[in-house]
Structure formats: structure tokens, C-alpha cells
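About this split. The held-out portion is used to measure sequence recovery: a designer receives only the C-alpha cells and must propose an amino acid at every position. Recovery is the fraction of positions where the proposal matches the reference. Here is one held-out target exactly as it appears in the evaluation file.
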């Protein structure tokens, strides 16, 4: 079976792969009202870094899901001694009770999904006035069709959207009070002084194909530095 970018992330066990990494996540969460009674879904939890922080810092009731079996395996090892629910599940077709969560957190996850499916599922499992926090890739400037296809094909993206297009998708999915913020995602932000680099939980015997894929990622990141950005989208159900 042909390997893809998400297989590469899983093999390297990249945690905090979004801009700002865990430092940005901590800062964003510090502005929310989170307690031991808060039910949070970490959608696309990866190796469980954010889920670990949510319980350790807030004692929140955390459910961590990911579709990739290797990510779930690594999250299970990280969270083995914590009361965090770990489930292999598909955000486009969740096996979770509706109107269950106070908050859904997505860190560079929704862009990899069919948004008409994933946003509908998230809306369904959030309680009324529940919050979605999503750190997601946005298109900052117009690219050629060939450039768009290069990016979308490499990362396996079903879509590549501008900020306005993201907001429209969220609005059409029934979310309201939608805000889009750069939130210090630029690399010179004060919030990124500490803990601003990804963590790795390496698998053994990483294939040469995955190593090349990671190098390609860094090349694309540099090539399209000005064209691709990120936003924190915060909205309510």
C-alpha cells in the first residue's frame, strides 16, 4: 500500500505539528473556561500530547480520537496512566453519542477531511453553545492550478481554502459566533518563545520513502511560506 504524508507523521510520531506547537495550544486554552467538568474531544489526537496536557493542567474529561492506528498506539503509550479515553475513530463518521462534548479541539486535522462530513459530525457531538477550536491551514494568496494540485496531492488535502472560505464552511455547517485569528501563529510571536518545536516519538526502521517525504514537506513549507498560513477558528454550535 502506498504511503502518504499522514503515515509519515505517524512513523515519526510528530506531536504539535501545527505552527506554534504545544506552546500555542497552551496559550489558546488558557483563554477558555476549562475545569474537571469540561468534556473535551481532542479530534485527531496524534500521539496524545495535547490530551495529556488537558488532563494534567485542567483535569478535564478528555476523549482522544485518531483514525491512524499507529498514532492511537503511540497515544496509548503516552496516556497509559491517565484517565483519558482513547478511541480509534473517523471524524467524518463518528461512533460517539450526540450532544456530548463542551469543546472540540482540532489541530491541523480538519483540512485533511471532507469538511461537509467532519463539520456535520462535530456539530452533532457538541452540546448547544459548545465550542469548536480549530487551528487550520489557510490559503493566503492565489496560486496556479498546478501549484494547488502539488500541495493538495502531497498532503492528501480534499480542499485548500482561504479564511473567508473556511468561515463560510463553518457558517453553512450551523456554527455561529465565528472568529478567525492568527493568534501569534507567526514565528516571531512572543507566545512561541518556549516549547515551540514539535516533539517526536520515533518508530523503529523508518522507511527511506518516509524520510524523503519529510524532506519534501520541509521543501514545500519553504517554497509556499507566503502562500500558506494558519488561523485559529473559534466558533459555537
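Reference sequence for scoring:
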Amino acid at each position: 500500500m502506498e504511503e502518504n504524508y499522514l503515515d509519515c507523521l505517524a512513523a515519526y510520531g510528530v506531536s504539535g505539528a501545527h505552527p506554534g506547537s504545544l506552546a500555542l495550544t497552551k496559550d489558546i486554552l488558557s483563554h477558555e473556561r476549562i475545569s474537571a467538568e469540561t468534556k473535551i474531544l481532542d479530534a485527531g489526537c496524534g500521539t496524545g500530547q495535547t490530551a495529556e496536557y488537558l488532563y494534567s493542567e485542567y483535569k478535564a474529561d478528555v476523549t482522544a480520537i485518531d483514525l491512524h492506528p499507529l498514532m492511537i498506539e503511540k497515544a496509548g503509550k503516552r496516556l497509559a496512566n491517565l484517565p483519558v479515553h482513547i478511541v480509534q475513530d473517523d471524524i467524518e463518521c463518528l461512533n460517539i453519542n450526540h450532544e456530548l462534548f463542551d469543546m472540540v479541539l482540532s489541530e491541523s486535522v480538519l483540512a485533511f477531511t471532507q469538511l461537509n462530513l467532519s463539520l456535520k459530525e462535530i456539530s452533532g457531538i457538541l452540546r448547544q453553545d459548545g465550542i469548536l477550536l480549530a487551528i487550520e491551514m489557510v490559503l493566503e494568496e492565489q496560486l496556479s492550478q498546478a501549484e494547488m494540485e502539488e500541495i493538495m496531492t502531497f498532503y492528501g488535502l480534499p480542499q485548500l481554502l482561504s479564511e473567508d472560505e473556511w468561515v463560510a464552511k463553518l457558517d453553512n455547517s450551523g456554527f455561529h459566533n465565528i472568529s478567525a485569528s492568527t493568534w501569534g501563529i507567526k514565528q516571531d510571536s512572543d507566545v512561541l518563545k518556549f516549547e515551540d518545536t514539535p516533539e517526536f516519538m520515533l518508530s523503529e526502521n523508518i522507511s527511506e520513502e518516509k524520510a524523503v517525504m519529510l524532506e519534501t514537506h520541509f521543501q514545500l513549507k519553504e517554497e509556499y511560506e507566503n502562500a500558506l498560513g494558519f488561523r485559529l477558528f473559534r466558533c459555537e454550535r
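Annotator remark: The chain has a mean pLDDT of 90.
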